[in-house]
Design brief:
The chain is built from 29 helices and eleven strands. By secondary structure, the protein is of the alpha+beta class. The strands form three sheets. A four-stranded antiparallel beta sheet has the order 4-5-6-7. A four-stranded antiparallel beta sheet has the order 8-9-10-11. A three-stranded antiparallel beta sheet has the order 1-2-3.
Length: about 600
């Protein structure tokens, strides 16, 4: 053994809490770095990994009986093979550990001693989990410091969420808010400088590019937004920022359950909508208030625990305000391209959320086009008994659009059961899952049953949903209405839908060119264009495809030329019939090698 190794062996390890304090003192201005601190590196030799079930049983055994002190817990973990890599399992197991009432005080004391003196992530995680159940306000400072280790942020924030939600939010933001634009506000929150928090919050541009739904919620919690609104009731800058954070929290493209997790969401809604008349009638404010109304009408906002009649009253108030001439003018003008898109959206959508303020419809499909400035998706929101299904039971992505659910008749009920995907995680189903339901007709009723919620890699059970039965006549009427109602659409989107319908009717328009239909819709970056994608496989038309497992994807952009959508779609379909689309579309997918092999330039090389 070398001299250094001998010294290391004789030197007791530093408690993680003390190590975090030292790192914080050494950080510039006492502010933690983005992504937090790394845990001290440990060398693990001869580890025999336990299975998930074995590790869970080992954690339960380590707490039976309840250890008298941190050293006993540490020895049990070592003997049973519980390592730092079991942190997530330790937290969930200890969180559900049976603890008789007479052991609560001893377990709390153990948790406190472990988080202050523990030297391993495994034991400290156990202490954090105990305090998440039994902690008191005096435990908040210790948990806040330990939460600065990025591998302990999750359990520490969970515990703090129970004890002190603003502190939990500050720790979360300090570790996870990485964008430069957020740093002045996060620094003010970390320092507890209330005088600096207010101006930084008002100055923050709540763009979805750097304010996700979770960031928005944590900012609202850390800044104690309802109290700020109460203390500054006439501050229109703060009022507008609060409204934009509410909109961000309910974004279906992120995690709309953040809005449901915000304990003060009702107070913020009351504060914003109740004082909305003070806001200047700008395009930004009109779009923000309309977005709030859409969410209160058919989005995640419906699912909050509203007092009877309160949501309907807020919607009615917004409806009256936005119908005033000064607000109508605000939504009717815009010079820049983005402003014009937003103004057009407000004109199309402005009265939609107020058509069904609080009707107890058994089944309804509401096609909602979100704010184009935020590149919000178009959703076919399914509401059962007035409640939106997708955010209520899925919450990992928006509902599918009308092109998928309505244009291709997927929601129609036939005698043969049909499984329909209602939503998919914004990343992909293979990553974070999807929501399915089986639809069938049963005599004079339509049945939605056998709900299926795929959650890859999750050990948490998916929520169970009952079978729903609807009057078949009313169901068919509602589906027919939703399929034919295009009031939500704009010209380029309608062009794309008509092109898609034409290719479904006449697939040979593409197949003659050895091509198959891909994704067709309006452009994401430029909603004033229709985008047609297709897959190319040589020999497809002859029935002898060549290397079908290596297709090339092409993208054709059709700009809106201002003529009626029907004329634009007809012209596009004629061109597809007469000219090989590979001659004017551009490669956008597949492989570089296959593109070069077939003589097509790869993106960026043209």
């Amino acid at each position: 053994m070398s001299a250094q190794e001998e010294r290391d062996a004789l030197t007791p390890p530093t408690a993680l809490y003390d190590h975090a304090l030292r790192l914080l003192r050494e950080s510039p201005d006492g502010f933690p770095p983005r992504r937090g601190y790394s845990l001290p590196r440990k060398t693990v030799t001869g580890e025999d990994p336990l299975s998930w079930g074995e590790a869970r049983s080992a954690v339960l055994e380590a707490f039976s009986p309840l250890p008298d002190d941190p050293a006993t817990l540490h020895r049990r973990f070592e003997r049973l093979g519980i390592r730092d890599r079991h942190r997530h399992l330790i937290r969930s197991t200890v969180a559900g550990l049976p603890l008789p009432a007479e052991q609560a005080a001893a377990a709390r004391t153990l948790g406190r001693r472990v988080i202050q003196t523990g030297t391993t992530a495994s034991t400290v995680t156990a202490g954090i989990a105990l305090l998440g159940r039994l902690g008191k306000p005096e435990d908040v400072p210790y948990l806040s410091v330990l939460g600065l280790f990025r591998d302990l942020t999750g359990p520490a924030v969970k515990a703090l969420d129970v004890l002190d939600r603003p502190s939990a939010a500050v720790v979360w933001l300090a570790v996870h808010a990485r964008r430069d634009e957020l740093q002045p506000l996060v620094r003010a929150l970390w320092a507890g400088d209330g005088q600096a928090v207010y101006p930084e919050l008002v100055a923050l541009a709540a763009s979805p590019r750097f304010v996700s739904s979770t960031v928005a919620r944590r900012i609202a919690e850390a800044s104690q937004l309802p109290d700020l609104l109460d203390h500054r009731p006439s501050d229109t800058g703060l009022l507008a920022r609060a409204g934009s954070l509410l909109v961000r929290m309910g974004r279906s493209r992120d995690d709309p359950t953040d809005l449901l997790a915000c304990r003060d969401a009702l107070r913020v809604y009351d504060g914003v909508v109740g004082r909305a008349g003070l806001l200047p009638p700008t395009l930004d404010n009109a779009a923000m208030l309309l977005s709030l109304a859409l969410d209160l009408s058919s989005g995640t906002g419906v699912l909050l625990d509203w007092p009877p009649g309160r949501r309907a009253a807020l919607l009615e108030s917004l409806g009256r305000l936005l119908a005033e001439p000064r607000w109508a003018v605000a939504g009717a003008t815009g010079s820049e391209a983005d402003q014009r898109l937003r103004a057009d959206w407000i004109r199309r959508t402005g009265r939609q959320p107020f058509k069904h303020p609080d009707l107890p419809d058994r089944f309804r499909v509401e096609v909602v086009s979100g704010d184009p400035a935020d590149r919000e998706p178009v959703e076919a929101r399914v509401l059962i008994d007035g409640r939106p299904v997708v955010p209520a039971v899925f919450g990992r992505g928006p509902a599918h659009g009308p092109e998928y659910l309505l244009d291709e008749g997927r929601l129609r009920a036939g005698t043969e059961p049909r499984e329909v995907q209602l939503a998919e995680a914004d990343c992909t189903e293979g990553c974070c899952g999807a929501l399915y339901v089986t639809i069938r007709r049963d005599a004079d009723q339509v049945v939605w049953e056998n709900w299926r919620h795929t959650m890859p890699g999750s050990r948490e059970p998916a929520p169970e949903l009952p079978a729903y039965r609807f009057d078949a006549s009313a169901y068919d009427t509602e589906i027919a209405r939703a399929e034919t109602d295009c009031s939500w659409s704009w010209r380029a989107r309608t062009v794309a839908r008509l092109i898609k319908a034409g290719l479904i009717e006449k697939p040979d328009l593409l197949s003659r060119w050895d091509a198959g239909r891909g994704w067709i819709s309006s452009g994401f970056d430029d909603p004033d264009t229709a985008v047609v994608t297709f897959w190319y496989v040589p020999g497809l038309a002859s029935g002898s495809p060549e290397r079908a497992d290596s297709p090339l994807q092409f993208r054709w952009v059709v700009p809106d030329d201002g003529t009626p959508p029907e004329a634009q779609a007809a012209a596009a379909l004629r061109r597809l019939a007469e000219e090989d689309p590979k001659s004017y579309a551009r490669v956008c997918g597949g492989s570089r090698e296959r593109a070069e092999e077939l003589g097509f330039p790869w993106p960026g090389n043209a």
